[in-house]
């Protein structure tokens, strides 16, 4: 899905947000452990503001309100804060960023497809599969900039050869092919183990075969004789 929705030409997206390919950090934060804790939120924004590259920070209105309530407005002014970005455009920004810094679980999956490094700022994560390859996890504090500098120095080119742990996006195609091969010519007398909802289970399944009421494949000749008996 990521590759299917990723814009091929991303120059307009970069121009819209005033950033250059490979020359900016893309960041998002929304989790209560980060934006509802004034100390954690202040540390995160301070660390982002100290990075050597401009930081583009799409921020939800609630997160903006929390920052203002905590008196963190001056820190926001040091970053390129924008309103939330649509999914396709955000994927385009991810693909062009030098580094991601976020508490988003979805981004942890996306970077493994887009081959970009990520600093996960959380106390724990549900995506351990990408840790140590595409991502590192740190807490809110000085660890952020330390990890960011490490990943920026390493670059992202080496990530191109690391496969995503979440599959290649072709699972549905492989499942369909396996089912089609099974349904087109199953051995006579073999049960397919398929349940149907709102349909006659004896409906033809291809190749002149049908399922009887028990879900067993019947040959074409037997099916034809049965049909004649039912119609007489």
Overview of this structure, please?
With 232 residues, the chain is of the alpha/beta class. The chain folds into two domains: 2-161, Glycogen Phosphorylase B (Rossmann fold, 3-Layer(aba) Sandwich); 182-231, no CATH class. The chain has helices at residues 2-5, 11-17, 32-35, 38-49, 61-69, 73-76, 87-96, 105-114, 143-154, 171-184, 220-231; strands at residues 25-28, 55-58, 80-82, 99-102, 118-121, 135-138, 204-206, 209-211, 217-218. It has a six-stranded parallel beta sheet, sandwiched between helices. A three-stranded antiparallel beta sheet has the order 7-8-9. A hairpin with a 2-residue loop joins strand 7 (204-206) and strand 8 (209-211). The longest helix has 14 residues, at 171-184. The chain starts with a helix and ends with a helix.
